[in-house]
Request: fold
Amino acid sequence: MRSKVAITRCCSYSRDAVSEAVRTAVDLLGGIETFVKKGDKVLIKPNLLSGNPPGEAVTTHPEIIRAVVELVKKAGGIPGVGDSPGIGSLGKVALKAGVKRILDEMNVPLVDFNDMVTADNRAGYIFKRFEVARAVMEADVIINLPKIKTHGQMLLTLAVKNNFGCIGGTKKAQWHLMAGVDRLLFAHMLLDLYLLINPELTVVDGIVGMEGDGPSSGVPREIGIILSGTNCVAADVVLSEILGIARDDLPTTRAAVIRRLPGVDLGKIDIRGEKLNEVKLKNFILSSVRHVGWNLPPFFSRSMVNLLSSRPRIDQKKCELCGACVKSCPPKIMRLEKKQVIIDYKRCIRCFCCHELCPRGAVKIQMSLIRRLFPGLAEKFEQKS
Ligand code: SF4
Ligand code: SF4
Reply:
């Protein structure tokens, strides 16, 4: 069966405009009743990375969540909204992101992901077991609500990547450690996790996304769409096309192509609603992070890879010494010393969690010295995925 993706235009976060666009996007896939039956426990999973106000485009906008909750209730489902923020408690993040107020108005609970269960994933391509939030495994229906954003490590965070939030707090760091600098391995992990969770429906907040150094320190960019789909890989393939990014440059899609998963072939996706050509963006700016690795000769050492790759740099003037980066660094190679954050670059795995989670935007992306001096040489070894 062809994967279905629907695109609707929406250029404002006004309640009515979002409600109409989300409803149309879901109707184009057959309507909410196709996914939610009366009495179903429905877990809605937005991107609640950190406690930023909606205008900063870090989190899924609260009006998208409201529109989806309304649809779920209309179908007789029992909605809950959950995520595992990268920084801060879910309650505080939801409050600052404007989500708590809307959920209180609608009498919908916030669902904590700290209670985790081990889920066997025998069908996994590489990863056969995950610790996932209990609420995710016990839901009858999962609705995935990603936000379109750039991402230092994985190029973009879209539909497949949004499922990573179903792994609670510190466990995420362990996955970064396990995959190390290998983005393709990390992408395979994200795919295995997505296929385990397998959300019935994805509704993407593409009204205002984030370009530049996302997923938390980039710049809001008006895109003007809501996209819905039943297959996250297909949704990401269509989104890449809209953003002007080659399909295989997105590591999760590249991994899906290697596995020949359904949804990787743009020509075989049943795209409904707006015409793809009419919603394509020009000049979408990606993260300044540059990775190297896959095509380096085997004799290249880890230190040489590090010399060619971008690296995190602390802007000491902006840094408020909160320690969030030190706490979240997977290999624990950051420390606070003499009122400064120190990074042991030799052991840095270039995961950019510190960049993603710094609440002050004080972790910058620095181009390597070799790249600055010999841009052609470094580009030769650039790792697209
Ligand atoms: S760099 Fe950011 S996260 Fe790290 S201590 Fe400074 S303000 Fe906190
Ligand atoms: S310093 Fe930053 S990029 Fe390096 S390992 Fe730690 S969190 Fe990852």
The CA atoms of residues 176 and 348 lie 11 Å apart. The chain has two domains: 4-278, 311-366.
